[in-house]
């Protein structure tokens, strides 16, 4: 009994802000009284969504978020599969060194890289306000390399021997034998990789100063820090934007919730 | 000639030279995005580095520890490091407590496990920028929290109160990240041998007693991991002070070192000073992680 009270209270504390975010995004007049917890039918509107769309252009922002996220996922999967496969199944000079790098990179903290990456990418390579500049530091995810390596290691050796006897080359074996078998890993990596760039704020915020290049997290943050104070119903529009930003991830998470396993959650986090 | 080379290549490059090709993108990426910037950061922090017009060759003289002296002599930076210490003192124990209690409760729950897992995990997968929005709403002067508290509401309100701004951020981050650590504890709980609980109950231990004498010690390795990861996340704090307290306010009471790195390095054009803050921050985090591990594992 006490267990259910603790769990129920915990769930309420975790979920309530999301419920309140949604209710708040529909309020015509900002209402913060205790009764505002229940929606007031006379005070409901979709106007806040129109308002935020006018201020930050949701279409462009969502497109930029999509390009950023899609680019990161594509690079993470392609380069992760290649490197993971090589590390798990191939014998080549320098394999130990590459694996050492994989382990080392995981302990390098991003704070230390922030300023030099900014200097290099913005000042050095001139990639400010470009999709490439936003994607670049996230393009290869070491955790994904690691996850793919683990999955390829688990495949039985006989499979590969049989393919080699049939005369298939290494690339062909990877493409037609190994890859179809690690499809579950592929889904997990895609789902977990999605969260990182979609939610990422600091790096795209540094790189994109032009409004039409900003992903939604950045344009919404700029709205919060610059515009909100002067709007008629600042919280309504802000919460409407927050709902638009949160909805895709929450939807994906609920739909695929059993694929989010504790052991490889770290992939979604820049580390 | 080609035949000879093909025959000799494998012994030189290993049995599957194609592996080099497959790992090449990763190695190049690590060199460009990790290794070079890492060295660059340390180099920058010992030189007088400033932004110059593109193509211009400028001298960037070695200045020894000058940048570090500037950083340590800057009250705003010292304040930011103090703030992150306050943050960690509140955030880390709170995160451990929430995650541990809810994971243990969830582990024994029979009904509604899927719903509860989703509920606890949703804040973790949602963008900080989005949930910061609703916390701003909840903790504003006229917000729901103050409405519920009535006359007990703090004055000045939470986010503009020098004493409360950092604690609110610490609670916010604990709330947001606990879901991840609940799952981590949940996985660790599966490895606690049942016999330990049986032995405890034979010895007459109640639920509370076996929580403290069996569960908590058995989960110590997981707790070390939670503490280290939460410390690293806390040291990276940027979005919350930037948005929730309007750029680390009031009066820098919630500024974090990474926020200072942004202000000094990008806004004020002092990347060398910002790099020095970064180096000091990383040294601090590494030292703290080692200390935590030693303290928690020693007992």
Automatic annotation (TrEMBL), chain A:
One of its GO terms (cellular component) is plasma membrane. It is a multi-pass membrane protein. Keywords: Cell membrane, Membrane, Transmembrane, Transmembrane helix, Transport. The chain crosses the membrane at residues 67-87, 99-121, 133-152, 173-195, 235-256. Pfam families: BPD_transp_1. It comes from the Bacteria. GO terms for biological process: transmembrane transport. It is found in: Cell membrane. The keyword Transport applies. The keyword Cell membrane applies. Its main location: membrane. Residues 62-256 form the ABC transmembrane type-1 domain. Belongs to the binding-protein-dependent transport system permease family. This is Sugar ABC transporter permease.
UniProtKB/TrEMBL annotation, chain B:
The chain crosses the membrane at residues 20-44, 80-106, 118-138, 218-238, 273-291. Residues 81-292 form the ABC transmembrane type-1 domain. Pfam families: BPD_transp_1. It is a multi-pass membrane protein. This is ABC transporter permease. Belongs to the binding-protein-dependent transport system permease family. GO terms for biological process: transmembrane transport. It is found in: Cell membrane. Keywords: Cell membrane, Membrane, Transmembrane, Transmembrane helix, Transport. GO terms for cellular component: plasma membrane.
